[in-house]
Amino acid sequence: MADERTLLIVDAANVVGSVPDGWWRDRHGAAVRLRDALVPLAGDGLPGLPGPVDVVLVVEGAARGIAPVPGVRVEPAPGSGDDRIVELASAAGGRSCVVVTADRELRRRVEAHGARCLGPRAVRPLPPGR
Questions:
Q1: Residue-wise DSSP of 37-97
Q2: I need a labelling partner for 16 at 20 to 30 A (CA). Which of 26, 50, 67, 99 fits?
Q3: Contact status, residue 74 vs residue 68, Cβ threshold 8 Å
Q4: Vertex 110: Cα angle to 96 and 126 (nearest 5)
């Protein structure tokens, strides 16, 4: 039987980079904080995307070494994070797939495989005062 849970793929580099909070000083730490913030989404989902969902965080570069935690699978991209995200979306096999990114070209590529897209604020709201 096909998995009924929605596959929620998060573009770590794009989401982390969407808020200028000093992430560039510690890219690895920023990815860890994002991973940890995604944990509740595995059970709760998002507005318009009820849980449970399978959360996959795609990391690249300095963030490649972070470990998965219960609720969040971490996929280190051997090369381009965008290419790995497209591979995962194309392998969804007809199951609902949502990709979180603001990257227009990546959105176009995953939508060609039937994924729908949400912007970074879906998983990482702006801090107060921004």
A1: HHHHHHHHEETTEESPEEEEEEE-GGGGGPPPBTTEEEEE-SS-HHHHHHHHHHTTTTS-E
A2: 50
A3: yes
A4: 85
Residues 44-53 have pLDDT tens digits of: 999 889 999 9
| Nearest CA among 16, 11, 14, 10 for reference residue 31 | 16
Q: What DSSP state is assigned to residue 1?
A: -
Whether the link from the prior residue into 52 is cis, omega within 30° of 0, is yes
- Work out the mean pLDDT of the chain and round it to a whole number: 89
Q: What six digits make up the tokens of 117?
A: 């897209």
- The pLDDT of residue 10 is above 60: yes
Dist CA 125 CA 130 (whole Å): 10
Entry pTM: 0.91
Whose structure tokens read 């939508």? 111
Q: Which two tokens stand for residue 5?
A: 């849970």
